[in-house]
Amino acid sequence: MTTETKTITPAPRKTVSVRLHPEDNARLQAIKETQKFVGNFPDFMTTFIDRSTGSEMFNNNDYAKLQAAADKLGVSVVSIIIKGAMKYASRTMLSDPEKQQKTADTRVQDFVESVMEANEKAKEWFDKHELTQGFISKGIKEATGKEVNRVNITSFIAANETRLKDHHANCGIEPDHNRKVFNYERKYKKG
C-alpha cells in the first residue's frame, strides 16, 4: 500500500509595493537579519506574515481546508485563523472556575455567534436579524427544542452590549428590525 503526497500549489499572487516609514523599514530589516533570512523582501514579508498568524503550523491538508473555508466565506485564511483563535480564547476564558458558564449560556453564545456570522454574510436587509432577548429565546427553542432561561439571555446581552451594538451598526440593523422583517415577509414572501 502506497500513499501519495500531493503538494498544494498556492494561487499566483499579485506583487504589491508598500512604502514604509523609515523606522518601520529598519525594524523589518533588523528582523530579517536576526532570522538570517536570505531572499528577497517580498518573500521575507510573506514568510513573516505566515509566521505571525501561525499559517506555517498547518500541514497541506489542514491548510487546504482553511483555504477552502476562506474562499467559501470570501475572507483570508488569516481571518479564519484569527476568528478560530478568538473563539477558542473566549471559551477558555469562560471556563475559568469563577466564571464558568452553564450549558444554557453556551447555547446562547453559540446561537448569537452563528446569527452574527449569518448577518455579516447576508446581502439583503430582510435576511438579517436583530439580536434581541425574544429573538434569541425563540431561535434557540426552534434550533434545539430546548428553552433557555430568559435570565441567562438577559445577562448575556448585558455582558455583550457593546459588541452587539457594534454588530448591529456594522450590519445596518436598527431597533425594531425583526418586526420590519416579519411585516416584509408577511407581505411579499407569502403572497
Polypeptide structure, described:
This protein is mostly helical and 191 residues long. It has a domain of 89 residues. Helices cover 64% and strands 0% of the residues. It is built from nine helices and no strands.
Tell me the span between the first and last alpha carbons.
Answer: 60 Å
Low-confidence stretches: none
Structural class: mainly alpha
Count all strands and give the number: 0
Strand content: under 5%
Number of helices: 9
Mean of all residue-level pLDDT scores: 79
Helical amount: 55-70%
Overall outline: elongated
Order of helices and strands: HHHHHHHHH
Largest sheet data: none
Compose a concise summary of this entry:
Helix content is 64%, strand content 0%. It is an all-alpha fold and 191 residues long.
Top keywords for this entry?
191 residues, mainly alpha
Topology (SSEs and partners):
Elements: H1 22-34, H2 41-53, H3 60-73, H4 77-94, H5 103-121, H6 133-144, H7 150-159, H8 161-170, H9 177-189
Helix pairs in contact: 3-4, 5-6
